[in-house]
Amino acid sequence: MIDPIILLYTWFRGELVGTDEYENRYFEERKARKNCKKRRWVLYNGTPEASKVPAIWHAWLHYTVEKLQPAKKNYGWEKPHLPNLTGTALAYKPQGLIDGGKIHSKDYQSWDPN
Predict the structure, then answer these.
(1) Which of 2, 18, 45, 90 has a CB 3.0–4.6 Å from the CB of 85, allowing a cystine?
(2) How far apart are CA 104 and CA 95, in angstroms?
(3) What is the pTM of this model?
């Protein structure tokens, strides 16, 4: 649930710039304040998670680029952007990981102080 104050601020002062593949919406202030840049912010779709922001939108939010680049050609070796999956069932677990007391690698021996 988005904070109602943020929604009011967005409604009164924000201008929608675009959305990404996760349906996050990106906004910029309609008018810049005196001697300041226009503020930029994102309203997340679902749980607010900063790792859901793709690289081009991150660059825009942090004023690294002024205009968004058109979608570039993806090469075969490039993977699509994924949010941080740590703590989920899709998290990366390397071979040989000790998970829940189970040893996945046969060559692992635990240290015994005696």
Answers:
(1) 90
(2) 7
(3) 0.70
